[in-house]
Design goal:
By secondary structure, the protein is an alpha+beta fold. The protein is about 35% helix and about 20% strand. The longest helix has 16 residues, at about 105-120. The two termini are about 20 Å apart.
Length: about 170
Amino acid sequence: EWNGTKYFIKWNKASQDLFEKEKHGLELLCKLGSIAVPHIVGTGKANEYDFLCLSYIEKSIPNKTYWEKFGRQVAQLQRNTQKEFGLNFNNHIGRLEQSNNYCSNWVDFFIYERLVPQVQMASHYLTQKLRSQFENLYSQLHNYFPVEPPALIHGDLWSGNIMVGKNDTPYI
């Protein structure tokens, strides 16, 4: 709290551009207006710590309409389409860097921007058999995913990235 205003500060030692990328993602979500996000106060560095400062959201307990409202707002977010799958900046999944190069279809994006990098990072832990199984999986994925237009999603949507604000307002 400072001058009567509460803030939420995320901080981490030597997080590179983690918080700057998170800021860009929150700005994109805010611009679309489909679902509430905290106000971004700013990012910076203090000594060896990087930080992201956000407005503080007073938590509430969800009432019976919260999850329906949350689901509708996430669905509205995903109605924001574009020409290709990907994003004009890279970001992170946890502390791992994540590429978002554009691809013309979802399966190629999923394979080359999500699965292949993860398999490569874990390659020294994977047996040759398991690496071959991934290769086989890649060739089969076109059979499992329907053709859909590219849509903006919150790629790290888990319970730690959502909350209930006042008046049953969903926040990401």
